[in-house]
Amino acid sequence: MKHGSCLFVALVGAMLLSLSGCAGDDPLSGKNHDKAAKPVAAEAKKLKVGNNVYLEIQGDQRRVLIDSKVCLRQGQLEQFLTRKHTKEHESILTADVNAKDIHTALLAARAEPGNPVKFLPKYEPARGTTIKVYVEFYDADQKLQRLPAQRWIRSIKTQKDLEYDWVFAGSTLFQDPLDKTKPPFYAANQGDLICVSNFETAMLDLPIASPQGNDDLAFEAATERIPPLDTRVWVILEPVVGKDQGKKKGS
């Protein structure tokens, strides 16, 4: 998706205007969420961007919250987070979301999309604003846990945790050539929300060569660290902007 796509700008502007004097819907309400996985202080402003997607603002800090659940605890991975009913067989988390809503919320959080991976005529890694990804959930003892997402992902070959942060590649838009009256399709809605294998349709991707089918570069779920299936998990996306750009993974 090109920088500053006009399909998202109007939505972002309207969303930011609506924040003035309004806290919006509270993503932490509901069963087990009056205390569970509360990402920041209560005075933070929250705006519901779409189903299970929220923008949160506290002072100069902005981040995106995604309500998800565990769908896989063991096996090889191609995604960390996928869209419901798409690629749950190769992703740790799934969420009932529209990927365009996450993209819009990231723009409002001051993240800038770059471009997805390119394979031809030569390999070029995905680029865009670095996004710190965290998970928050309650463990078996009802203690709130917050971890970098990389703690749930490890190299099959080395057994080491994933060593890289994701970047906001921004996916791409496809126009139906047979029906130009249809709105363009946001390709990440095929399931490629937060990827660990490189996809040309990825919204968030790794800025390294991580091709599908390369066993030396493949990743798997760190089973012992992942809570039970169907555990509700907040995925927290924190864009690295300004003076924070370039900090180490998970810092």
Structural commentary:
The protein is mainly beta. The protein has a domain of 170 residues. Strands 1, 2, 3, 5, 6, 9, 10, 12, 15, 16 and 18 form an eleven-stranded mixed beta sheet that branches. Strand 2 and strand 3 form a beta hairpin. Helix 1 crosses helix 2. The longest helix is centred in the N-terminal third of the chain and has 13 residues. The N terminus is likely disordered.
Short overview:
The chain has helices spanning about 5-20, 100-110; strands at about 45-50, 55-60, 60-70, 75, 80-85, 90-95, 115, 125-130, 130-140, 145-150, 155, 165-170, 175, 185, 195, 205, 220, 230-240. It has about 250 residues and is mainly β.
Largest sheet: 11 strands, mixed
Name the overall outline: globular
Overall radius of gyration: 17 Å
Structural class: mainly beta
Poorly predicted regions = 1-9, 18-35
Give the ordered list of helices and strands: HEEEEEEHEEEEEEEEEEEE
Distance linking N and C termini: 28 Å
Number of helices: 2
Q: Using DSSP, what is the number of strands?
A: 18
